[in-house]
Write a sequence for this structure.
């Protein structure tokens, strides 16, 4: 009877992968800015999705006995001109802006990775056709197009707005992924898989994309902050989230004119927006340093010079 023995080479990548993950986690935890950013983002998510349960007021229900009231024990962030609770509106707007930012970053990263990897791997006419679409979208003034198309999608809800933002938010990432794929497609493991008859799409999903995952993770993290800023800017000018729903952009637009007299209408949503974007950038910087393969092991270097007696 013949006994099958597992090839030790097949089990080798697992310890290396585990060691790589442990090293990345160690570097990430050693970066104080990234840890502070992650804690801040977590607290903002808790506030956005748990805040509505902390207050008895609904974001759309006015309190006609408290118009333009400053922050108090009854209304933590004060009220606006028609008596709506600002805290309830801010947490609702933060929730909507975070969801839109996450979905835009997810859709745009997936689209960029697929288009860039296919263009770089197949080359030839496929590369030229896909890059023509990328260059064409880069030439188009995205803000102007969104402002024209968005009012016509009013009946479809905010999901159409998310897709519209994602369509114009992936081209630069696709170009970078294409360049990385071109450098990877002639590597030994990719050529070996191709000679073994593995299908191209499986090679892309199993060999190409995992090797560009570090860049995609960093890019998607930073894209969340950029998407939230884009949504805020478009909603500020009336081309994003539509009333009666609210987002940080609509709250900033409503509170700008009244900020000198009633500052709580503007500074609370503006402060949360600044904190979120700052926290996301800190996480992105920490991930970039932690996933950099050329960086050291995260341990401080010792001074090799001895002190003079």
């Amino acid at each position: 009877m013949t006994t099958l023995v597992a090839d030790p080479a097949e089990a080798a990548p697992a310890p290396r992968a585990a060691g790589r993950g442990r090293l990345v986690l160690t570097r990430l935890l050693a970066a104080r800015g990234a840890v502070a950013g992650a804690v801040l983002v977590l607290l903002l998510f808790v506030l956005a999705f748990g805040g509505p349960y902390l207050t008895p007021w609904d974001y759309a229900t006015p309190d006609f006995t408290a118009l333009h009231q400053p922050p108090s024990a009854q209304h933590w962030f004060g009220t606006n001109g028609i008596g709506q609770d600002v805290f309830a509106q801010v947490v609702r707007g933060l929730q909507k802006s975070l969801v839109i930012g996450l979905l835009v970053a997810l859709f745009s990263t997936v689209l960029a990775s697929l288009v860039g990897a296919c263009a770089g791997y197949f080359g030839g006419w496929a590369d030229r056709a896909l890059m023509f679409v990328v260059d064409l979208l880069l030439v188009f003034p995205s803000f102007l197009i969104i402002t024209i198309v968005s009012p016509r999608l009013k009946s479809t809800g905010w999901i159409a707005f998310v897709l519209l933002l994602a369509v114009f938010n992936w081209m630069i990432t696709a170009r970078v992924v294409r360049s990385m794929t071109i450098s990877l497609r002639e590597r030994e493991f990719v050529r070996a898989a191709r000679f073994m008859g593995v299908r191209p799409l499986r090679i892309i999903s199993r060999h190409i994309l995992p090797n560009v995952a570090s860049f995609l993770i960093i890019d998607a993290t930073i894209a969340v902050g950029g998407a939230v800023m884009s949504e805020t800017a478009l909603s500020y000018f009336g081309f994003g989230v539509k009333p009666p729903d609210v987002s940080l952009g609509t709250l900033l637009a409503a509170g700008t004119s009244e900020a000198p007299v009633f500052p709580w209408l503007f500074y609370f949503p503006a402060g949360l927006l600044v904190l979120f974007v700052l926290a996301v950038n800190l996480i992105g910087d920490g991930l970039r340093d932690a996933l950099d393969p050329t960086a050291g092991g995260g341990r401080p270097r010792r001074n090799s010079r001895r002190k003079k007696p």
